[in-house]
Amino acid sequence: MRKLSERERRRNIYRARKGNRSSKPASQVVTVFSSTGAEQVLAPLRTVGPPQNFCIRTNTTETLAFLNQLRRKLLNPPLSGTRMLASRARERGRPAPRWIGPYISFENIRRIDPTTALVLAAEYDRARTLLRANTSNVSRLFVVDAHRWHDDVFTTLYDVGFFDLLDIANTSPVQSDADKRTLRFRSGDRNDLVAIDELLDELEAMFEDVGLNADDACFELNGALGEAMENCVRCAYPDGVALAFRHIGRWWMTGALDRRERRMKVAIFDQGVSIPGSLKDWRFYESFSNRFLRMLGVAPDLSQPMFDGEVIRLAIEESATSTYMEKHGKGLGHIKAFVDLCASGRLTIISRNGYYEYEKGQEPVVRSLDVNIGGTLIEWDVTV
Amino acid sequence: MIAAQHTEIASMVHNGGSADVTIDIGRDFSQTPGGRYVAHGPFSGEAFRRELLVDAMERAIQNDFVVRVILDTVKRSYLSSFLDEAFAGLVRDEGMSKADVQAHLSLVATQPRFLKYKALAEKYLQEA
């Protein structure tokens, strides 16, 4: 008998330990929708999925954890393609089906809010842009079994423009009288007040359709949203700073209406260095640093995310109260001030690991999260 | 080219070198003024200052008249960075004296909701 090589010996031990587990993963037939159309493919039963309540504000940790997982998966897509499954082809007398690896399934989501849909769309937009450089990757972005998604989830993603992003369909915004409507997202890499104007025009028109007047709110929101966009364009993607994931230097924004509650929600997101990550170059850094030391008893260490929530709060306070207002730094205070101009409202800022929430008339709530959002998200949710 | 057109528009209301010059931001520049710098996006405060304001202000200081800038003809609110760069930038970046600018620049807003932006611009100019 031939003596086994060390490699063969180890392989036999591995197989013995593995026991009776089948080497083939359990598979299923699913429908893949991509830029090349709809197609039935074989897929493993194991999937990667967002939480049922896919909402950054109300289910922050789980939602951000999934988004981080998604980011890694989209930017390093698993292999997929056509593999001749010879045995199947012989059995059925037709070409073997395509197969995909463990995929991202949206089937279990029961609730998604427009802001989370925006962040999701931004992640797909980044992946699409980066993968486009390699044409063989173009069809790698896809969704699975979209016809099985919860109706509200499908509608929100459809409205926000998710399917257009993947070149699955050239959809047009839904003209419905539904209680909740979401605007198609906009994206850019410059401080584009024309884009803001168009978004606010659309929001105003939606409110008019349902007999509400959002003119005053949109008038003021223009400034707050513009300040946020200005901060993004100026600070989010500094030269020479390496981020955990490659970026495409853009912002994304959307808006939504809830007719029953007379609420308007507008959000802007970027995938940059974050507010805590960019403060060291801030004009007010010294006074911010003194304020931080006074309030928390330690000097700020912006490389550590444990104080990110407090950092955001104190940066906003510094911006709003500083009397030395040369050049940069006025924006954060104005972003918050918009909420105070509305009948009621809330500002939520999530940046790196920091969470800041301000409800009109109340003290801000801040905390530092275990997970990083991978940029900065600002959401205004106000009563019209 | 754009600067020349804007200057021409602004000059149309300038009568004989002694009367005031009026620059209407919504009419002469943009209905949707932008942020601070030209490099960051269209219709910035820097573009407004350089294309419209500097030339008019230099002539105003030289010939002792007032440049009236009408703020409330734009569609929606201003960004603080636009106001700061446009008006405080005259002192900070164009080398004009604060006293000259304050004496020869008049910011005009008649609609109530634009008054705070007028006050903000004046505050930035004061702090420049």
Structure overview:
- The complex is a heterodimer of chains A (384) and B (128).
- Chain A has 384 residues and is α+β, with helices and mostly antiparallel strands.
- Chain A contains twelve helices and 17 strands.
- Chain A has helices at 6-18, 60-75, 86-92, 114-132, 151-160, 162-165, 193-209, 215-236, 275-278, 285-296, 308-321, 331-341, and strands at 27-34, 37-44, 47-48, 53-54, 80-82, 98-100, 103-104, 111-112, 143-144, 180-182, 186-188, 251-258, 263-270, 345-351, 354-359, 365-368, 376-383.
- In chain A, helix 7 runs antiparallel to helix 8 (215-236) and helix 8 runs antiparallel to helix 12 (331-341).
- Chain A is globular, with a radius of gyration of 24 Å.
- Chain B is mostly helical and 128 residues long.
- Chain B has helices at residues 2-12, 25-29, 45-63, 80-92, 98-104, 112-127, and strands at 21-24, 67-70, 105-108.
- Chain B has six helices and three strands, in the order αβααβααβα.
- In chain B, helix 3 crosses helix 4 and helix 4 packs parallel to helix 6.
- Residues 1-17 of chain B have low confidence and may be disordered.
- Helices cover 55% and strands 9% of the residues of chain B.
- At the A-B interface, helix 7 and helix 8 of A face helix 4 and helix 6 of B.
List descriptors.
heterodimer, A: 384 residues, alpha+beta, eight-stranded antiparallel beta sheet, three-stranded antiparallel beta sheet, B: 128 residues, mainly alpha, three-stranded parallel beta sheet, 6 helices, globular, disordered N terminus
**What is the count of helical runs of chain A?**
12
- End-to-end gap of chain B: 30 Å
Strand order in space, largest sheet of chain B: 1-2-3
Mean pLDDT of chain B: 88
Question: Which class of secondary structure composition applies to the elements of chain B?
Answer: mainly alpha
Radius of gyration of chain A: 24 Å
Nearest-integer average pLDDT of chain A? 84
**Quaternary structure of the protein:** heterodimer
What summary fits the major beta sheet of chain A? 8 strands, antiparallel
Largest interface: A-B, 29 and 27 residues
Look at the helices and sheets of chain A and give the structural class: alpha+beta
Helix content of chain B: 55-70%
Overall geometry of chain A comes to: globular
- Gap from first CA to last CA of chain A: 85 Å
